[in-house]
Amino acid sequence: MFVQLDLSRSRRRRRWWLLPLVPAVLWFCLPRLAAALPAAAARADRVIGARYTARLDALQQENFALHQRLAASADAVAENKALRSLLGSGRAVGCVTPARVLARTPCGLTLACPDAAPGAAVLDAGGRYAGTVASSDGDRCTAAFTAAAGLCGSCVGLATPGKWVLTGLPADCTLTAGEIVTTPGGDWLGMLAAAPVPDADGLTASAPLTDTADLHAAVYFVRTD
Question: How far apart are CA 182 and CA 156, in angstroms?
Fold first, then answer.
């Protein structure tokens, strides 16, 4: 006689009796999990924060290098633009060296121009007289807005950059508006904006100038010939 035993219920009972232990296990593990989670979060923050900081430092270094290249490029672009303007002015300027403005004063400029000779004429991008080199120190020089003799026709006067009035002309001169005024070295000073007018002393005359040097430019040219 064969008897078949049904063990399915006993197996199910063995599995179900473990269920009441699950809350106990969770209750036992929760404090440890609660203690481990902040530590894990802190570690993750440290790792992520370190990577973020390293990446940020690298980006800042790249940004700094880029700004340096842009600054150098901007200087070169300004010099090239000024040189094109000088060449396009149609005025004979001889041998010149471009010089960027490093600083300004009411009476002159500090230019980036090494080994400039004192007394050398300083021209703007239009080839117009702006002053002379007063002194040179290493890789820079000081340019002063010094007065220069102005030749106009057969007359000689005196013009100061910034004031741009040709003074000291003979009271009886017959110059007219539009006549060109140059320095003894041939540099452009300007043009007479009007006919000379006698001064109060009755011995000399003065006339305003037009088409004069730009004293607010970023790049100038120092004569080297």
Answer: 10
In the beta sheet, which residues pair with residue 167? 158
Q: Which two tokens stand for residue 46?
A: 């440290």
64-78 pLDDT, tens digit per residue, is 666 666 555 555 555
DSSP assignment, residue 85?
H
- Does residue 207 surpass a pLDDT of 90? yes
- Structural tokens at position 17: 């009796």
Tens of pLDDT, residue by residue over 145-165, are 999 999 999 999 999 999 999
Q: What percent of the chain has pLDDT over 90?
A: 44
In angstroms, the CA 169 to CA 183 distance is 14
How far is residue 192's CA from residue 151's CA, in Å, rounded to a whole number? 11
Distance CA 38, CA 121 (A): 74
Q: Which residue type occupies 128?
A: R
CA-based nearest residue to 135, from 105, 159, 94, 161: 105
Q: What is the pLDDT of residue 215?
A: 94
b/e code 2-13 from CB counts within 10 Å (16+ = b): eeeeeeeeeeee
Nearest to 220 by CA among 135, 147, 112, 115: 112
Rounded Cα gap, residues 191 and 196, in angstroms:
12
